[in-house]
Amino acid sequence: MDLDAVKRSLELELELDPDPSSSSSSSSPAAELPPSFYDAFVLHGLRIDAAEPRRVLCSLSVPPRLAVSPQCKSGFFLQNSESYLHSGVIATLADVVGSAVFYSSGFPTSGVSLEISISYLDAAFINEEIEIEAKLLRVGKVVGVTSIEFRKKKTGKIIAQARHSKYLAVSSKL
């Protein structure tokens, strides 16, 4: 298990190098690209509570920036006590945390998403603490499958359940 790889995949740097002409110590061209705004926007505040082979447990207090509310009569969206975690954020977290579980199991890469299916069962509201538990269900020759469960930390009530299938690309010899 490579705990550092799990942390690197979930804890993004929010600051960019102010000097674009400075040389990067990484040999990967992707390492020179700025981090994805959307990943940093969603993952900021995500905490890794446990990482062990075939399992990653994270927690997040739902911030207002990731919440939506029922539409009011004027057509504008307001953030209030009824605001809840956006379903797109749950999908993003399922993708990212579901990918991190491959690193916790010793794989050098998390592969490419083939399919993500999500059942939304309840809502998590602003400032509510949630747990995200990803488990590696199976790894075949080229496909791996993870299960991701979102729960309210206080009650254990399930918010959403996801299944994530990944193609574990074999590196080319070219």
From TrEMBL:
Q: Which reaction does it catalyse?
A: a fatty acyl-CoA + H2O = a fatty acid + CoA + H(+)
Q: What's the chief localization of this chain?
A: cytoplasm
* Protein's cellular compartments: Cytoplasm, Cytoskeleton, Spindle; Cytoplasm, Cytosol; Mitochondrion; Nucleus
Keywords in alphabetical order:
Acetylation, Cytoplasm, Cytoskeleton, Hydrolase, Lipid metabolism, Mitochondrion, Nucleus
The answer to keyword Lipid metabolism applying to this record is: yes
GO terms, biological process: lipid metabolic process
Start and end residues of each Thioesterase domain: 84-157
Give GO MF terms, alphabetically: fatty acyl-CoA hydrolase activity
Q: Which superkingdom?
A: Eukaryota
Q: Where are the bilayer-spanning segments?
A: none
- Gene Ontology terms: cellular component: cytosol; mitochondrion; nucleus; spindle
- Asked whether the keyword Lipid metabolism is assigned, the reply is yes
SUPFAM superfamilies the record matches: Thioesterase/thiol ester dehydrase-isomerase
One Pfam family in the UniProt entry:
4HBT
Q: Which family does it belong to?
A: Belongs to the thioesterase PaaI family.
Quaternary structure, per UniProt, is:
Homotetramer. Interacts with PCTP.
The job of this chain, per UniProt, is described as: Catalyzes the hydrolysis of acyl-CoAs into free fatty acids and coenzyme A (CoASH), regulating their respective intracellular levels. Has acyl-CoA thioesterase activity towards medium (C12) and long-chain (C18) fatty acyl-CoA substrates. Can also hydrolyze 3-hydroxyphenylacetyl-CoA and 3,4-dihydroxyphenylacetyl-CoA (in vitro). May play a role in controlling adaptive thermogenesis.
Q: What is this protein called?
A: Acyl-coenzyme A thioesterase 13
- Species assigned in the record: Ananas comosus (Pineapple)
